[in-house]
Amino acid sequence: MLNASPELGYYRRRQYQSGWQDILDIMLSGIAENAGDEDRRQFLNLMGSRLAQRFPMAQAQTVGDLEDELNRLWAGFHWGYVRLQPAEASLTLKHYAFPAAAAGADESQWIAGLAAILEGAYAAWLVAQGGQSHVALRWQQDSAEGVMTFSYRNGL
Known about the structure:
Elements: H1 6-14, H2 20-34, H3 37-54, H4 63-77, E1 81-86, E2 90-96, H5 107-128, E3 136-140, E4 147-153
Antiparallel strand pairs: 1-2, 2-4, 3-4
C-alpha cells in the first residue's frame, strides 16, 4: 500500500473486499500483458464511461453540488471521495481513499488501471453535466501519494 497517512490507510483497509480486488487485479494484469499502454488506457476509459452511463448523476447547479453528487456515487461503491478545485479555465479533481490493491498486486499497475477507469467515468459525468467532449480530462501521474489528481481543461 502507498505510504499514506494513518487515517487514509485505515479507510483504504476498511474498504477492502476479499475477492473483488483480486479479480479486478487479475483483469488489469491481463489487459496490461496483452495491450500497449495507450490501448489499455483507452479500453479502461471506456469501462469508466460505461460505469458513468450506468450510474447517471443528477444535474448539478454548482461545483459544490457536483462534488456532493460525485461523492454520493463513490460512497455507494466504497471507492473513496473527490474534492473539486475550480479555476478560471480548468477544474482539478482530487480523488482520495481509492480502493487498495489486492495483496501481491503490482501497485503501480493497479493505480494506473483505476486511474484510467476514473478518468473515463469523470469525463463522461462532466460531459453529461454540460461539459464539452473536446475538453480533455487526464490523470496527472505525478499525483501525491494517496491521491489521484485529474485535470479537466483545454489543451491537455
